[in-house]
């Protein structure tokens, strides 16, 4: 195996060597690197399999909901949003509505913030905001808001944009999702990387 020991490493001598070398090159410590990379483990624990809480952008006091970005079963390479059938059959995605771009909110949470199905809402994260339609749906876990990825185009097609070049149809989830990466692997964090707040428009 391509490890320092040439074997499967339950205790990763390979990661330890890499982090120690990086720390030495930058006159710091391995624990400081782990903290900078938003890891919780310190010391020897960092080199064995362990649980890490996911990093989520935004303070819970300001942004009370975790944003859940999910994909439509109708999305095909991003082109679907310019096809009539995409909107005609949008309710095939659990909780979604035909010819609309909805954010699903648990009814318990919706009552607390005074939002009803059909209300125009603004969803704001630390990186941006979008507008769409509220949909109360018990299929969403309390404390989260779920919105299907795929709408919010403003210069793509006669259907994908409400008014080509000027007004998008719905909101683009990318405006809410920060560029958060796992620092050691380089993997992107897509589906619950940020907290948001919801306001009626």
What features would you highlight for this structure?
201 residues; alpha+beta; six-stranded mixed β-barrel; two-stranded antiparallel sheet; 4 helices; 16% helix; 21% strand; elongated
Short structural description:
The protein is α+β, with helices and mostly antiparallel strands and 201 residues long. It contains 4 helices and 8 strands.
- The arrangement of helices and strands along the chain is HHEHEHEEEEEE
N-end to C-end Cα span: 56 Å
- The count of β-strands is 8
What's the gyration radius in Å?
A: 21 Å
Strand content: 15-25%
The helix tally amounts to: 4
Helix content: 10-25%
Name the strands of the widest sheet in spatial order.
Answer: 1-5-2-4-3-8
Low-confidence stretches are none
Overall structural class, as computed from helix and strand content, comes to alpha+beta
Mean pLDDT: 92
């Amino acid at each position: 195996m391509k490890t320092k020991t040439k074997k499967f490493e339950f205790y990763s001598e390979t990661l330890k060597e890499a982090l120690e070398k990086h720390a030495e090159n930058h006159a710091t410590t391995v624990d400081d690197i782990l903290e900078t990379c938003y890891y919780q483990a310190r010391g020897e624990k960092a080199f064995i399999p362990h649980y890490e809480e996911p990093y989520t952008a935004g303070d819970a006091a300001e942004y009370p909901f975790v944003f859940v970005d999910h994909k439509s079963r109708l999305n095909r390479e991003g082109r679907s949003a310019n096809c009539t059938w995409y909107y005609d059959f949008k309710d095939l995605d659990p909780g979604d509505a035909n010819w609309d771009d909805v954010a699903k909110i648990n009814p318990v949470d919706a009552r607390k913030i005074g939002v009803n199905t059909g209300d125009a809402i603004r969803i704001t994260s630390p990186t941006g905001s979008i507008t769409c339609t509220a949909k109360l749906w018990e299929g969403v876990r309390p404390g989260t808001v779920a919105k299907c990825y795929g709408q919010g185009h403003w210069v793509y097609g006669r259907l994908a944009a409400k008014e080509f070049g000027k007004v998008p149809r719905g909101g683009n989830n990318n405006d809410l999702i920060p560029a958060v990466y796992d620092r050691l692997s380089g993997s992107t964090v897509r589906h619950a990387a940020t907290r948001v707040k919801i306001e009626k428009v």
